[in-house]
Design goal:
Structural class: mainly alpha
Strand content: under 5%
Shape: globular
Number of helices: 13
Largest sheet: 2 strands, antiparallel
Radius of gyration: 20 Å
Order of helices and strands: EHHEHHHHHEHHHHEHH
Amino acid sequence: MTNYTIQSGDNLWNIAKNTYGENLKSNADIQKAVDAISKNNNIKNPDVISIGSNLNLPDITSIFETAQSAQTESATGESQEQKASAAQNDGSLFQELNEWQGEHQVLMEKVINGEVSFDDYEGMKELTGSSFDFMDGKDYNNEEEYNNQTLELAQGELMAKDGNNDEQVSFNEYFSHEMGLEIENVKTLIKNGEISKDDAVSYIKDAYILAQKLYNVIDQKMGNGDNYIDAEEFQTFYQYLDEFDNEGKDGKFDIDAMSEYPEFLANQIKISPESEENAQKIATELLDLE
């Protein structure tokens, strides 16, 4: 156990990186370290720490439990990353929803790239279905069946985003899942000179703030405000999403609602200037531009 006094400009992300160094091989590892520091010091919001406060930093072995983790993976043949992938490829309702969304995203990218006209996109949208029936023929007015279906969706999302398998999702786990690959793509664009460093930081900063707002509204307005999201809170999100479109509660997700609802929720949360400044720093660190 190591003691550390928080300095001006610190955040848990860079404290973890500076403390554990090469032991952290990825953003997911840094996220695990941040979560461990937060839990070890009873920090409810990892984005809010006070200058001058003392932190008890856990040993690297207690964060990753290397030997036990290696044993578990050897016995099961399955890593956490593989489990997260399995949640999206196991034939579950959550996988079906991801595939349905993916079809529409591919079509929209073709419109954006000028490969097809919007009219053609609208036609293709009709072919693939403009809404996702998550009740799968069941009666959405049957409360028990409705709750079972939305809970299955929620459990699939929890499994995909729960990096340390503790049945709850921290903000760092949430953001890492949502933006991990995108960050690597932006790094490549910077390296290839296709985007300026300032534009890259601005893009990741905006994405970070949007994710933080959405995470906060799910945690605070749909949950208990403990800075973690569990399956029941994801379930509430899905049930509200169903009612968000023009059809109201009907056991279906409209493709437009899937795009608009997260931003609609996020706009209900305001971010302080301090949080915006912190997001700028984090975006810079995530892109390795320090």
